[in-house]
From TrEMBL, chain A:
Cellular compartment(s): Cell membrane
Principal subcellular localization: membrane
Membrane topology: Multi-pass membrane protein
Residues of the ABC transmembrane type-1 domain: 75-291
Protein's name according to its UniProt entry: Carbohydrate ABC transporter membrane protein 1 (CUT1 family)
Coiled coil region boundaries: none
The organism's place on the tree of life at top rank: Bacteria
UniProt-listed InterPro entries: ABC_transporter_permease, MetI-like, MetI-like_sf
From TrEMBL, chain B:
Major location category of this protein: periplasm
Keywords, in A-Z order: Periplasm, Signal
Signal peptide: 1-25
InterPro entries documented for this protein: Bact_solute-bd_prot1 (IPR050490), SBP (IPR006059)
Organism: Rhizobium loti (Mesorhizobium loti)
Localization in the cell: Periplasm
Protein name: Carbohydrate ABC transporter substrate-binding protein (CUT1 family)
Family: Belongs to the bacterial solute-binding protein 1 family.
Gene Ontology cellular component annotations, sorted alphabetically: periplasmic space
Cross-referenced Pfam families: SBP_bac_1 (PF01547)
Length: 298, 414
């Protein structure tokens, strides 16, 4: 084989993998990278989208959103909403998974509970929002029951009061999201070898000791992975909050997603909306990198 | 043997030239709007077919979608220069679109065609440019549940704000989940500021503007806020104000849970369908004491305008004229249960339906008033006012402070 033929063959071998990958790379580029790069570019332009000849704005729009107290309130609400949701998703999901995995519960009852507990997962965000709006409205079922059993003395405007609105939307999101944890942890529980528990029994370990020293360590990889994913997804929740409160009353449930939406479609300030979207992107990106590093380390 | 004669060649060449230059081609107008899905199926297309028959060589392609989608489509079209030839408009959008030079000035078209301006209910102008005609108007009177009013001993339906407060107090029975009035101030759709709050200002012939600038700290707006606060302090407003939407407002009225609401006339049929037994009447929005002038009637409209980038403005103007003409306008608004953009048009439902007939009388004796039409980022202004009103109703600030805070926010947008 001549030297020229050999180098041609080498080149073909080097290029071939990229040719195989090119359809996927093209799709990723068009559907993910291009929109992302476009939004980043908009955040540095004046009158992005609305003008055919937008001028360069530098960091002006980032400065504007960082100077806006509503942005910081939104960031705080997002963190509260996300952290509380993830913590309770995990706690409730773990409790229900342990219950469904227990031999002490009658198998028929266990099957019924399995169906009931997974129900919130079957509803879309819009349905969940409507359900909770109806339940928590001042004349709704929740107030009626709480008043009858004497927990509250008068009707509480759960979504309409600045004092309760953020807790109410967080509660609705907790209700909607725990089945993901429950199903994942249940699968994990069923994969823990019985020998561990038998050995613990021989050593005279109590139930809580088995939970702390066997169950939780065995489930830890699942807990961390699902928690990180849940954190990323919950941070971006929009329809539930938009339909229940619209970010109100008085910005009390404004989160980064509703803040960005209002900038774009209420104020038509698409440049600032892009800057806000880039901030969300950076936070999500940080969490995603953390998730990827964790997965690699495993 | 077939031979091509020079004459045949000349005819073919002429035909090709005519075709290439467009002289023989039909002009196709694109008409973007959200009206078609809201009208009986096929009815807007039928009107377009009639237009095409009356104007040979002009075809109309309808680009239809829901309101919000159309709004976004028009915003992007204006930015990219791809706006349809004729566009359905909401008054709240025109300022932004005009700032983008996206809408054609219809003044020269009116002058050139000898269009009778006195026949149209309104011409929306921005910077002196005639950019929109309201084709159909959906007015917002007060709906009163007559059974609740009778049970509460309200014998005379309110005509002034003081009478309204008294009637609302009488109709409120909180222990039975029954309230005098309903106020939807959800930030998701802040149109409650326009329809349920500012309507009190306009009804008394007052304004929220002065010399083209916001005047929210002026007496009319502060008085309105004080009045709304007094209704709230008296416990007459159905709870859940801050997250209540227009649909929920209507549902509460339909289910006998509120005695009075300000709402679109377009909902009359919906209300009847949901509760055929509901006994209700329509009255104009009550006014301040001793006011005897004409009443401003809040309205939302289906507006129409022409794209500045359209290559077929002459044909587009023909379509606008056609939709604004007496007979066609009457036909369109009859289908939409709306009031006409042509003052001579009389929709058929006003003679066949008592409620619509009464509303038509209110419409004819008053004037259309919606000061958000033509304002920059109107929805954003409503949101800002909404937040301040919510703070006031939550007891965090006085009406004067709410007005001052809203004024500050609005001025930044002007």
């Amino acid at each position: 084989m001549t030297r020229q033929k050999r180098s041609h063959h080498k080149l073909k071998r080097a290029v071939a993998p990229y040719l195989y990958l090119s359809p996927s790379l093209l799709i990723i580029g068009l559907l993910m990278l291009l929109p992302m790069v476009t939004v980043i570019a908009y955040s540095f332009q004046n009158s992005a989208v609305l003008r055919r000849d937008p001028s360069f704005a530098g960091l002006k729009h980032y400065q504007a959103i960082f100077d806006d107290p509503v942005f910081w309130a939104s960031l705080w609400h997002t963190l509260y909403f996300t952290c509380m949701s993830v913590i309770f998703h995990m706690t409730i999901g773990m409790a229900f998974a342990l219950m469904l995995n227990s031999d002490r519960i009658n198998p028929t009852l266990r099957n019924i509970l399995r169906v009931l507990y997974i129900l919130p997962w079957l509803f879309t965000a819009v349905i969940i929002a409507v359900i909770w709006r109806l339940l928590l409205e001042p004349n709704g079922v929740v107030n009626s029951i709480l008043m009858q059993i004497g927990i509250i003395g008068s009707k509480v405007e759960w979504f309409s009061s600045p004092q309760t609105a953020l807790h109410a939307v967080t509660f609705a999101n907790i209700w909607a999201g725990y089945p993901l944890f429950m199903v994942s942890l249940l699968a994990g529980l069923q994969g823990i070898p019985k020998d561990f528990y038998e050995a613990a029994d021989i050593d005279g370990a109590k139930a809580y000791q088995k939970l702390i020293f066997i169950t939780i360590p065995q489930l830890m990889p699942i807990i961390i992975s699902i928690s990180l994913l849940d954190f990323i997804w919950t941070m971006q929740v929009f329809p539930l909050i938009w339909i229940t409160t619209g970010g109100g009353p008085i910005y009390s449930t404004e989160v980064l997603s509703t803040y960005t939406y209002k900038l774009a479609f209420s104020s038509y300030n698409l440049s600032q909306a892009s800057a806000s979207a880039v901030v969300i992107l950076l936070i999500s990106l940080g969490l995603t990198l953390f998730y990827i590093r964790y997965q690699k380390a495993r | 043997m077939f031979r091509i004669k020079p004459a045949m060649l000349k005819i073919a060449a002429a035909a090709w030239l005519l075709g290439a230059t467009g002289a023989m081609a039909d002009t196709t107008l694109e008409f973007t709007q959200w009206w078609e899905p809201e009208l009986p199926a096929g009815s807007l297309r039928a009107i377009m077919d009639d237009f095409e028959a009356a104007n040979p060589g002009v075809k109309v392609t309808l680009v239809s979608g829901p309101y919000a989608t159309t709004r976004d489509q028009i915003s992007v079209g204006a930015a990219t220069g791809t706006l349809s030839d004729v566009v359905g408009l909401d008054g709240a959008w025109v300022n932004n679109l005009n700032a983008q030079n996206a809408l054609a000035d219809m003044n020269p078209m009116m002058d050139a065609s000898g269009f009778d301006k006195s026949q149209v209910a309104d011409i929306i102008k921005v910077d002196g440019k005639a950019v929109m005609f309201p084709v159909a108007s959906f007015v917002y009177p007060v709906f009163v549940n007559l059974d609740l009013a009778a049970q509460a001993g309200v014998t005379k339906l309110p005509s002034t704000r003081a009478e309204f407060l008294e009637a609302a107090k009488k109709m409120t029975k909180a222990d039975k989940n029954q309230y005098g009035w309903v106020l939807p101030l959800s930030l998701q759709t802040p149109s409650g500021v326009q329809n349920d709050m500012m309507s009190w200002v306009w009804a008394s012939g007052q304004s929220m503007m002065a010399n083209g600038k916001p005047d929210l700290e002026g007496k009319p707006v502060v008085d309105m806020l004080t009045f709304v606060k007094s209704l709230n302090d008296a416990g007459t407003i159905s709870p859940g104000i801050a997250t209540k939407t227009e649909q929920e407002k209507v549902e509460e009225f339909v289910n006998d849970r509120v005695g009075m609401m300000i709402d679109s006339l377009a909902h009359v049929n919906l209300i009847r369908k949901r509760n055929p037994k509901l006994n209700f009447d329509l009255i104009p929005v009550p006014v301040v004491e001793n006011y005897t002038g004409k009443r401003g009637l809040p309205y939302a409209s289906w507006g129409i305008g022409i794209s500045a980038a359209s290559k077929h403005q002459e044909e587009a103007w023909k379509l606008v004229q056609y939709l604004m003409s007496e007979k066609v306008n009457a036909k369109l608004v009859s289908l939409a249960n709306a009031f006409p953009g042509n003052v001579n048009a009389k929709p058929d439902f006003v003679t066949s339906d008592k409620a619509f007939g009464k509303a038509f009388e209110i419409f004819k004796t008053g004037y259309l008033a919606n000061e958000f039409t033509g304002l920059p980022v109107a929805e954003d202004l409503m949101t800002q006012f909404d937040v301040q009103a919510q703070k006031m109703l939550a007891g965090e600030q006085s009406p004067e402070q709410a007005a001052a805070a809203a004024q500050k926010g609005w001025m930044a947008k002007f």
